[in-house]
């Protein structure tokens, strides 16, 4: 095959001429565009007419340059535009400040080089997902000094001159992260305090049970000592005085001896009553009901307050600790009737079943405002109510006190009974 060298050269010259004309045309259009941009920025042009397929479009540009500069360069949020591959086409000054990198070095670089390495795969997935709709997700970007900045990325897919691109707003969330960490630390601290408080509460409950147990043991010991030691001593004194009285002494001596015997009898009765109050032996020997009958009988005799004591229901099973708690609650309730109610009568009702014991102590005295009574208000009324509430709680019973001024007072205790407890 042969070539005509003249034709080839003519074709090349023609091509070079066309390229030269196109270059000159492009340079002319670029100069016009730059002049138009300068005019727009300086405010010399406030309206732009764009000719397109649908005809001429008129855009008002007054203040637009200033608004966009405020939006992109003046706001706290960083903004940038990416290609579909993640190349940075544009970034504002805030993004440059955030990454501590000059804008000239950022333009044309890959956004992946700024994302924290461990998060780059997730970022790529997020970028693809944003093509389906606006996406927001937290990442960490690495600044030029190797420091990590936590950010919230708001990504939106768009079209730039027919190609896929992404617009991204980057918000520095360092302060929010610090606040969240401080909040988490505070939550951890207070959670720790709460758990410690729970442990202390459990320990206090254990100590309360131990105090009550030791208290009951001490009462038993004192009761035995009073009965055995003092009772025997007083009985011996009484016998000796009886011998003196029958020895034919003068009547005056006999009277004195009789007086001493009376005092000894009173002391003996007091010791018996005191021993019974500290720890009634029949509570363990015979059970709750006989112990309460004995206590109520002595209470009526010593105070003049009439107490109506009633039992009903089928026998249930309760532990010694539960019986002691119910006995002490009745004891404290009737003492409160004596001290505070101003009435001369009260009712004690106990209903038993195979599953529970319900105790109620009722009077029609002065009463008081019991709504919401707890804590400080209980302490102001003394430790009686606190003691009854604690005794009930320690044996698994529900304690309730209802009272209103002028309407009397009702103390109610509901004690569930578990299987296998000791006899009542």
Describe this entry's structure for a reader.
The protein is of the alpha+beta class. The protein has 4 domains: 5-58, no CATH class; 63-172, PAS domain (Beta-Lactamase); 176-279; 280-424, Heat Shock Protein 90 (2-Layer Sandwich). Helix content is 54%, strand content 21%. The chain has 12 helices and 12 strands. The strands form 3 sheets. Strands 4-3-7-6-5 form a 5-stranded antiparallel beta sheet, sandwiched between helices. The longest helix is centred in the middle third of the chain and has 72 residues, at 174-245. The protein starts with a helix and ends in an 8-residue tail after the last strand.
Low-confidence parts, pLDDT < 50 over ≥5 residues?
A: 7-12, 45-52, 56-69, 374-382
CATH architecture of the largest domain: 2-Layer Sandwich
Please state the structural category.
alpha+beta
CATH top-level class of the largest domain: Alpha Beta
Largest sheet: 5 strands, antiparallel
SS element count, helices = 12
User: What is the assembly state of the chains in this entry?
Assistant: single chain
Secondary structure elements and pairings:
Blueprint: H1 5-42, E1 47-52, E2 55-60, H2 64-74, E3 78-83, E4 88-91, H3 93-99, H4 103-106, H5 120-129, E5 135-142, E6 148-160, E7 163-172, H6 174-245, H7 251-278, H8 281-285, H9 288-303, E8 306-313, H10 320-341, E9 345-352, E10 356-363, H11 376-380, H12 384-394, E11 398-403, E12 409-416
Parallel strand pairs: 8-9
Antiparallel strand pairs: 1-2, 3-4, 3-7, 5-6, 6-7, 9-10, 10-12, 11-12
Helix pairs in contact: 6-7, 9-10, 10-12
